[in-house]
Amino acid sequence: MAKYKITLTKTEHTELEAILSKGYHTSQQFKNACILLNVDEGKYSKESSVNREICKVLKIGMRTIDRVKKKFVEEGFDALLERKSPDRDYERKADGDVEAKLIALSCSKAPAGFARWSLRLLADKIAELGYVESLSYETVRRVLKKTSLNRGK
Q1: pLDDT confidence of residue 150
Q2: Domain end (from 58, 81, 104)
Q3: Contact (CB, 8 A) for 102 and 126
């Protein structure tokens, strides 16, 4: 494991102190600020703590401290304080056409042996009809929740 030496500038040090003393911040920001202030070896730090002491006080693992140090050195100060938005894009299975067919199907008569459509029945029937390869019942629930139709009430 590589050793990372943390030296904070005066502005970084005061900003971390401000996070700990005032304002609304996430627990992650608060924890990262505590870690950085305690491992700081720069001229603005009062004293540098050993990782074991920080672990005991903050009730975190050694690896957490190592990850925070690594992220600070490699990505910078701002990367620790701001949450990164997810990089992954999800492709929607239920586009407008599938949603319309799903709503039409839910308004139709239920299959034989059933009093009404369930979410799982609708998901299976949409896949069976070939509109999509597969569809979860949760997606069906979200689509039907968006509509304001009265299904037989």
Answers
A1: 64
A2: 81
A3: yes
